[in-house]
User: Fold this.
Amino acid sequence: MNGLFSITGELARPVSWALFDSLWQGALVAAGLYLLLFLFRHQKPQLRYIIASTAMLAVLALTINSFVSYVKVTRVTETVASMESPSPPEAGRVATADPEGATGSQFSTPLTFKIRNALNPWLFFAWLTGVMFITLYHLAGWYRTRELLIKGVEEFDSARRDRMKKLIHKVGVKKPVRLVRSFIAEIPCVVGWVKPMVLIPAGILSGLTEDELEMIIIHELAHIRRHDVLINYLQAVMETLFFFNPAIWLISHRIRLEREHCCDDAAVKITGDKMKYVKALTNLEETRAVTAHLSPAAKSGPLLERIRRIVADPGPTRKTGSVIVNLISVIIIVGAVFTIQSILPDRATAEVNLTSTEVFEVQKDDIRGTWEIDDNRRDRQIRIEFRRRLSDHISLNWSYEELDLKSGDNARFKWETDAGTFFFQGFLEEEDGLFWGEGDCYFRASRDYMDRMRELGYNIKTEEKCLTLAVHNITLDFAEGFSELGYDLSLDRLVEFHIHGVTPEYVKEMFELGYDKLSEDKLVEMKIHKVSPEFVRELIKWGVKDLSASELVTMSIHGVDPGYIKEFHDLGYDDFSSSKLVEMRIHGVSPGFVRDLQELGYENLSSSKLVEMQIHGVDLYFIKGLAELGYKDISPSKLVEMKIHNVSPYYIKELAEVGYNEIDPSKLVEMRIHGVDKSFIAQMQDRGYDLTPDELIEYKIQGDFPKRKKRIY
Assistant:
């Protein structure tokens, strides 16, 4: 041990002690971080991102401070030891000063000091070993990332590249960015920092509309604008140095989560359509689930949680006392002050004329926003935007076709919902039935609506809450329906239900089908994946019943629909379980594939055998090719074995050309495994040898020629 210690030098001790201290220091910082995240859970993700990043830096700063302190202590203790001893201390010996004095103040007790001193060499070398392995892991990841740039990539057409340039300008990225289609990447991602490239998996393109694809691209461009690739490198360094520290992994995970939230918000703000972005994420998830079971970069983090955060209402702001505020760094405090001042809503006191006979007088509780109709849009939508206390803007797009719009410099119109009324005034022009213009918008909450919602158990204390419900058009009938069904929903969950189409009528129909204990999350999941009452009824019709909600979702995700089941029923298969049906669908076992096998005499095959044959490519052409060469009525297992070892009709024909006909299928497999092919046999025949298949295999294994030449007749 002394030898090891002498090799590491005087830095080994302070390094290992500082890393040891980082465990409890990191635990305290992580606990403080999650307390602050809880207090600021309704604030912008950028603020939470700064807090989490500061926590990461705090752990590093505390560890460096401990290291410096222990370096000083080590030098002091060695000096004290040398002064007390007439001869120099032995190599590797650590002198222990009085724990109550200056030299021992870094340690809680002499026992702690002795324990650390004993473990020091092992801790230091264990840490070095861990750092080495983690570094190799990151280097391997870097190599795989480099392969993404040079293998399996394809440029998009010129139209897409031109559109990409506009998106880059729109997001505010200052450097050129390449957009390529990747046949290797599994998720949309950004590769590279100096010369960034956005990779779009080819497999997801068919599952997204043009607008949805652009939203996903904007999300990735937001990563580039924020220099997230560089910051991710720095996180990797921290995770390498502190690989043993659970607090660092928790903090790092939180940083990545809030980073994705920031980019989600950037995408919503730039596109101006929260609902379309939510749909884009949902369609991306569905495409991934069906194709390759992908895991998210634009999809980092569970889909339901991200969607909930995007659409959730942050609620009334809570004031924090000076004790809590003092826990935050000066940078965060100053940033929060400027953020609050910059986004406080503007309460106007002017008057807005709505009609020639009515004057709308703005009240102090009215919420002021803006509206805009873009003449470049062809979907006849009006965009409305409101500022919120201590949160991002609320932006939404509504169709204006049902509004009574009239052009003019002082156009006036209103929009009534159960939750309140939207009043509009501004400039409006019309041409060929299309409008464009802009102006001010005011929202006035309905007191009757708020009172009735409170009676139903929904805690609506502010007009901002009511605005959120009005934006999503949450009617009283909708809220009352769930209360009658016994669901005690939060306002955020009520909004989420409305977004995904989880209606009281939907829940009632599922009740009638026996699904009367479904959780809120399960209802949303079922609706996202299109598990409808009609879907369930059709499954029951074809004998697939008594399924759990999770089994229904799994079947719908993988396309096991009633039509698929009906075709198998017509082929005589009516006893497949839901898991077997899903397995068959995943591996491409189609009714047509089974029908082809039945025509060749392969009937009543189990689902496992069908999957096995499909996986290994035992299809109609392979079986017919063997039959034409005289190999008929081969068992399914033997067919799979022959296919696995590439005993193809072509291979059998080659053997026949050199005189080897009607060989047993098992022997064919054995010959193929050992590389007995046409060229090897021809080589042996040129030397005058006439060998049996077994002899050919034996000499192929041995690698030399037979010593006795057989006579050829």
